[in-house]
Design brief:
By secondary structure, the protein is mainly α. 49% of the residues lie in helices and 0% in strands. It is elongated.
Length: 113
Amino acid sequence: MGQNEEHTKEKAVKDMQEMKRLGIAPLALGDGASEASESKPWYEYAMRGEKAPAKSNRGALLDEEERLKLTDREKRRKLGADPMATLVKAPSEGEELARLEDGGRGAGAGVGG
């Protein structure tokens, strides 16, 4: 007693769709995960000299204002978690700019004057 061929094909298609949804579908020969996904990793953009789109942790695309807000929040979080931050004062943007304009020689940077 053979099974209905149409039912077998439909079941295979349905199973493949479910595996794709779960991310466990087999890839075609020579394909990698980056080729199979809709979004490309950051290094794909870097190789072409483009800026990768900013995404949240959940994968949603961010506009520039949201990206800057999250970047600033992440910097503050890292600075707060850094044990050396209490010992070493990070230069402000103005101090950093003055140091760069001075050719890297800040106050007291040179030896022997």
